[in-house]
Amino acid sequence: GSISTPYSFTWKPDGTAVFVYDYGSSPRYVKRYNLSTAWDLSTASYSQNFGVLSQTDFPFGVFFKSDGSKMYVVGATDKAVYEYDLSTSWDVSTASFSQSLSVSAQLSFASGLFIRPDGLKLYVGDYTNNDVNEYNLSTAWDVSTASYNQNFNVVSQENKPTDIFFNPTGSKMYLVGQQGDDVNEYSLSTAWDVSTASFDRTFSVVSQQQAPNGIFFKNDGSKMYIVGSNNDRVDQYST
Fold it and tell me: In terms of C-beta distances under 8 Å and separation of at least 24 residues, what long-range contacts does 207-212 make, across chains too?
């Protein structure tokens, strides 16, 4: 149940469970931890896992549909997004592979995954090309219906982006990376349209993480969480 090399993570919306992808595990587990006090990492205990090695050897992002019925994993070097169905919501032990989306035409090294709350837009970061790629889904939450739309280059702020996150309205985008060891905040003048993003400010996490790989905000924005592989932990910040 312990984490050896955390590369990405996401939360159940009510804060009672956190899901961490562990690159140091075999067969490349997504691990679920239950929190007896919502949003309080000190109350976390290991619950279960699900191996994704049959699809990808190097996952670098995990995301759930808001009702927990679907899980998505992005493969870094195979440059694909994998969709899984969970027969019991939020229970990763009940996950089964459904289908995948290749993003190799746009990306060199996929890092970070985010899906708009309505399931109609998907965003994937690129660690090598230093950008955020936006896809439209004609059928919500169905990656087989995705088509590439556009991208936004972040190299002026971050040379090795590892994860992306949006606020609930799509007016803000947050990005972490291993070059600057910081969180970069952007404003989008048109919600969910990455081509309208402009850099606002940065927040250093280097005192806690020298290799931040994942970022997540509590829905009301009051807490920020960063996961890193340098010290193999999730850090909690109040905003």
Answer: 208/235, 209/181, 209/235, 210/181, 211/178, 211/181, 212/162, 212/163, 212/176, 212/177, 212/178, 212/181, 212/182, 212/183
Cβ–Cβ < 8 Å for 137, 149: no
Specify the DSSP element, H or E, that contains 84: strand 80-86
pLDDT along the chain (239 residues), means of 10: 71 93 76 94 91 87 95 95 97 96 96 96 97 98 98 95 96 92 95 98 86 90 85 80
Distance between CA atoms of residues 22 and 82, nearest Å: 16
Determine contact, residues 173/188, Cβ cutoff 8 Å.
Answer: yes
Neighbours of 108 (CB within 10 A): 14
Nearest residue to 235 (alpha-carbon basis) of 183, 197, 174, 171: 183
> Using CA atoms, how far apart are residues 133 and 175, in angstroms rounded to an integer?
13
First to last CA, the chain: 29
**Can you tell me which residue has the tokens 């804060």?**
15
pLDDT value at residue 4: 66
Q: Name the pTM for this structure.
A: 0.92
Q: Pairing between strand 6-11 and 17-22?
A: antiparallel
